[in-house]
Amino acid sequence: MDYSEILVRYGELSTKGKNRKQFIDRLAQDIRDVLSDLTAVKISGTRDHAHVYLHGTDYHIVAERLSKVFGIQSFSPSIRVAADLTELKSAVLQLFEEIYHPGMTFKINAHRANHSFELDSLELNQTLGDLVFDNFDYAKVLMKGADILLRVEVRSEAIYLNYETIKGAGGLPVGTSGRGHLMLSGGIDSPVAGFLALKRGVEIEAVHFASPPYTSPGALQKAKDLTRKLTVFGGNIQFIEVPFTEIQEEIRDKAPQTYLMTLTRRFMLRIADKIRELRDGKVIINGESLGQVASQTLGSMSVINEVTCTPIIRPVVTMDKLEIIEIAEKIDTFNLSILPFEDCCTIFAPPNPKTNPKLEVAEHYESRLDVEGLVERAVAGIKIEMISGGTSDTINEFEDLL
């Protein structure tokens, strides 16, 4: 089928009232981002739907990407026909010869946006319905739940036909709920948490802690590749690499093993919060799942949280591992996540970490450390990359944050 455009329908955006235009504009930008390398494709939006003009681009490539963009309720590939009744009839007849078979029902749903066209919407429904009956002796109309619902949209420049409806990703356009900072490890859980935040319209920036030489270049690349997997759901993502070696060595040398994980997570949270503040974020997002590891008990999370007043979103906190894995497989991050590279949370992991640490004890051990200096040096040394579907651009200077 030679499609000329894709009609995109909005999801929850219909409930946004006075903010509707803001949501639609952001969705249009997200669509442009995920299709940015397809230079022939053009996008325009209206109050009720958007049009993605293919201009010869392979429909299947565009459709596969659109199916992952949050904010899209559904979309339909469309055939362009000249604004002429004779050509319209010929196109409808040709289309039905391809898709209409004995035992199937049909319905015509015409809409005349161009009021200078010779037939109005009702007359178009009757004329095209008669055309089908005259050419198919098995034709049968069904007003609700027809096998084929042919939509005919008459615009000023042309007429568009579509009959398929492909379900979109739903949710809200990325960015309409503000910005959050995702603590992205190389594991299974944090990319899923990022995906779920994106679905509710949060623009994420990925914060990844690297401790060379204990963590390898392969572990860093794995985190970037996981970030790239998330770009298909709403466009480019800033990847923020945090140098964490000095902090982990200080904790290892000056605190007991049982509190190593607690102190490590407290430092990570302090740094993520500082980055959030510098980059105008609203929340911190992580992949903690209650009870999964020692640092994810209620007792541990409570002590770790004490270093910040910033809201922390934990999208997978109530899910078990199998539920998280199921989502990871659907969003194509699972196979990357299980690659055997060490991350910051595992390189110095003690055999018996505290599952119910005490705040006063954690603070006592931190008093042996230059907490402010360690955090400041880590933040000053961050590297930022813009990760897109195929490329990344590195920003090395801390000043570019400001």
SSE topology sketch:
Elements: E1 5-10, H1 20-34, E2 42-45, E3 49-53, H2 59-66, E4 72-81, H3 85-99, E5 106-112, H4 121-135, E6 148-154, E7 159-162, E8 166-167, E9 179-183, H5 189-199, E10 203-210, H6 217-230, E11 237-243, H7 245-254, H8 260-278, E12 283-285, H9 298-305, E13 312-313, H10 321-330, H11 334-337, H12 359-366, H13 371-380, E14 383-387, E15 392-395
Parallel strand pairs: 5-6, 9-10, 9-12, 10-11, 12-13
Antiparallel strand pairs: 1-3, 1-4, 2-3, 4-7, 4-8, 6-7, 11-14, 14-15
Helix pairs in contact: 3-4, 7-8, 8-9, 8-13
pLDDT below 50 for ≥5 consecutive residues: which ranges?
A: 391-402
Return the structural class: alpha/beta
Largest sheet: 8 strands, mixed
Shape: elongated
Question: Oligomeric status of the shown chains?
Answer: single chain
Helix content: 25-40%
* CATH homolog superfamily of the largest domain: HUPs
Q: Radius of gyration in whole Å, from Cα?
A: 27 Å
Percent in strands: 15-25%
Mean pLDDT: 90
Provide a count of the helices: 13
How many domains, as an integer?
3
Euclidean distance between termini CA atoms: 50 Å
- According to CATH, the fold-level topology of the largest domain is Rossmann fold
How many beta-strand runs?
15
Which series of helices and strands comes N to C? EHEEHEHEHEEEEHEHEHHEHEHHHHEE
In CATH, what is the class of the largest domain?
Answer: Alpha Beta
Any guess at the CATH architecture of the largest domain? Answer: 3-Layer(aba) Sandwich
